[in-house]
Amino acid sequence: MNPIAQRIVGPRTPAELKRSHPLRYRLPVGLLAAAAGLLLISLFLPYWQITMFAPQYPAGLTVTSYVNRMAGAVDEVNILNQYIGMKPLESAAPMEKRFAVILIVAMALLVVAAVKIHSPFAAWLSLPAILYPLIFLGDLQFWLADFGLNLDPHAPLNMSVKPFVPHVLGVGYVGQFKSVALPCSGLVLAILATILILTGLWLQRRAYKPLRDRQLQAALKGDPA
Amino acid sequence: MIMKHALKTGALLGLIVAASFGAGCSKQSAKQATYQGETTKAADVIAQRKLKPDDVIRALQTFVPPGEHDPYLMFASGGQNGQILVYGIPSMRLLDEIPVFTPDSMAGWGFGGSGNEVLREGDIPASNLGPAKELNWGDLHHCNLSESNGVYDGQWLFANDKANGRIAVIDLRDFATKQIVKNPIFYNNHGAVFVTPNTTYLIEASQYAAPLGGAYDSITNYDKTYRGEMTFWRFDRQTGRVDTNQSFAVELPPYWQDLAISGKLVSDDWIFCNSFNVARYHGDDMDGQPSFEAGATSRDTDYMHIIHLSQAVKAFEAGKFERINGFPVIPLKTEIADHILYLTPETKSPHGVDVSPDGRYIVVSGKLDPNVTVYDFDKIQKAIAAGNLQADDYGVPIIPMEDAVEARVEVGLGPLHTQFDDKGFAYTTLFLDSAIAKWSLGGSAETLHPDVKPWTLMQKLPVQYNPGHLTVIGGDTTHPTGQYLLSLNKWSIDRFANVGPLYPENLQLIDISGKEMRLLSDTPLGMGETHYAQIIAADKLHPWQAYPEVGWNPLTQSVDTNAAMPGQEGIVRNGNHVIVNMTIVRSHYTPEIVQVNQGDDVTWHVTNIERTPNATHGLAISAYNINLTVNAGQAETVHFVADRAGVYSFYCTKFCSALHLEMAGYLVIKPATTQTAQR
Lengths: 225, 679
Hints:
The structure holds two protein chains of two kinds.
Chain A: H1 3-9, H2 15-20, H3 22-42, E1 48-54, E2 57-65, E3 70-72, H4 74-84, H5 94-114, H6 121-149, E4 170-174, E5 177-183, H7 185-220
Helix pairs in contact in A: 3-5, 3-7, 5-6, 6-7
Chain B: H1 2-22, H2 29-48, H3 53-62, E1 72-77, E2 83-89, E3 94-99, H4 114-121, E4 143-148, E5 151-161, E6 166-171, E7 176-182, E8 191-195, E9 201-205, E10 210-211, H5 222-225, E11 226-236, E12 241-252, E13 257-262, E14 270-275, H6 292-295, E15 301-308, H7 309-317, E16 322-324, E17 327-330, H8 332-337, E18 341-347, E19 350-355, E20 361-366, E21 371-376, H9 377-386, E22 390-391, E23 397-398, H10 401-404, E24 405-410, E25 415-420, E26 425-430, E27 435-440, E28 457-462, E29 467-473, E30 481-489, E31 505-511, E32 518-525, E33 533-537, E34 552-553, E35 558-559, E36 570-574, E37 577-585, E38 588-590, E39 593-597, E40 601-608, E41 617-621, E42 626-630, E43 635-641, E44 646-651, E45 664-670
Parallel strand pairs in B: 12-17, 37-40, 39-45
Antiparallel strand pairs in B: 1-2, 1-33, 2-3, 4-5, 5-6, 6-7, 8-9, 9-11, 10-11, 11-12, 13-14, 14-15, 15-18, 16-17, 19-20, 20-21, 21-24, 22-23, 25-26, 26-27, 27-28, 29-30, 30-31, 31-32, 34-35, 36-37, 37-38, 40-43, 41-42, 41-44, 44-45
């Protein structure tokens, strides 16, 4: 094998070690695979929801966001938003919604690939998946700000509702509405995936670091170990 | 006396408050002080309002806290207003008025749109007797809920128009009328609409005898050509309509048929109907003869009609009918030959005919007899089987009264209608005594109350005043619930603040859950006369909150292919025919400006594209008598000729949002010639 490729891929697992310490080598594989699985499952689950309460909406109006679509009281919220001049919800994040599924599948595949990479490169492969929940929330906050700050100045309620930045999580107030934004099961799975990946990578490093150190020392000595 | 009341009330209140708060707060002694505070406050209110102990209990029994729902709904006929009223029980809050026979501007019923289609369907068509007659009111006496296996299934509601001989079908998915059927052979009815136990047939019995088909004949030919009839309308649950092709009538003697009812369980397949002018009186009071009230009651007995439905259906299917005005009518001679119709005497001037929950007993009240007469279905069957019956002048066999009667129960003066509970008791309104009589059933119902003497009056509760019908929850079904009874009183005299010479009716809610009946509340009704009502558990109803899909046609209960849909709004001209495709949503119309030429034939489709419950909009066009109510999802179509030029605003009649006033538009009608209309 090409030495650079070998450095990237890291040491293979000696069969006798696999037999003597099965857990040490299998656990990181299991954790990373599970993380990839959770990411894929999360595609079918809601990530985030905002519920708006007002006197005339005692049960609240809930809009739910999936990675590639919105569900719930979108029409009703759009009707209400026209009074403050907010753009229709479905016009938000067009690129994200279009490519979300492909990107998440790709991230999951990279995590699966990291199982076979017994070097620090495994972390680089997993990095998108590790950061994904933060990226999701950051992007959502970006769009919330974009919507809240770019209100039509000629909207009917332009006098009483000024541009504002809705919070991505937590409680906010606009007009007679109190809104409560919460993470949903999909995002929870994604966060869980991050934790599993970090744990898996740490266990993987612990299992392969001695092997890799030896490999590197051997390489330094010019000994093809 | 007042002191005694106050003491009693105080003691009672202490008990009530202790009972209501005691359970939850034993641990929290700090809260006890607050509750004692409430007790004092409540005592102050009771003292200030001078309530008696009984009043406090009544209030607690009927009070439904703000935001809470009533466990039962009552569908009540509106009498001369031609509509159905819907009440919550026990609060007696009026929840809805369902327009049926009469235009109703709140519901946009009869001012363009689908309501017009239903109303016009009920008109009398032109015939060789004369021009068509447009009917814009009805005298709605009896509403009947659809039944499955003898209990209300909460799907349909039916109603009659006594004045014009019509019946109506109401869909309880949207609480809206779907069909009005004009009886082709008769101008009036009364024993209508009553359903068979699975709502296969709707019963409509005529009232004031006349030549069938509505044709002319001299009143001197009364005995020969004047007739009564009973129509059996076949109801099709699939289409939600009466299937007139599967419906037929049976000819009846000119006895002025009255209320009718279907048997159930053991008496299923048999129909019972009163009559009150077996004397066939038709004298002329201007000619020195007595008036109808004296002449019609000159005999000691009238006849209960007993009709074997499946025999009638068999005769209809075998083609043993004549067509009158195109409608199949089984003649009397066939009814006699095919064992369809029997009579049995009943004390004169009867009104109610009601069947006990087990189907065994038929209770008839002769208004002028202090007894209710209880007929035994088994005895009737035995008498029919024995044969050898005398016949009336028309050859209809008469079952001797004594062979059919099981019991007579003396209840009081002016007995009218009877309903039943689940404990083996019957309740009969006494018009003259102005009371409700509670009496015990015997025979098959005795096991329900082993410690009570059968066929005995238990209690008379005065009501205010002149009760007509009464209703118990499911009180005409196989499974009544003996909790509440409504006495539907004709007169209110001194019960309410005077509002001029047209008095409200008085609907009295009565608790029948205990041994003794207790009056709970009075509710004035100043917008109609409730003849009959039925009470159903609210959880048996599953109405839509909004129409299921956008573009919904309430008449077909499906999406209308002609409905105006979002993205396809606009005005299309084809010669002088203009089609407007309009959508409405808070708070604007699309389009908002509609320009047509004087004389254009306008078809205006309007769809409320809201999906939010309660987001109803209106479309009212000035001067053109157009006023639509369009609920969430609903599509409506109105046709008119733009024959008057000018600028007309249209606007939303429902206060739908903060920008409701801005929800308006212009119908601009350009004059055909420049000389007209322009100033």
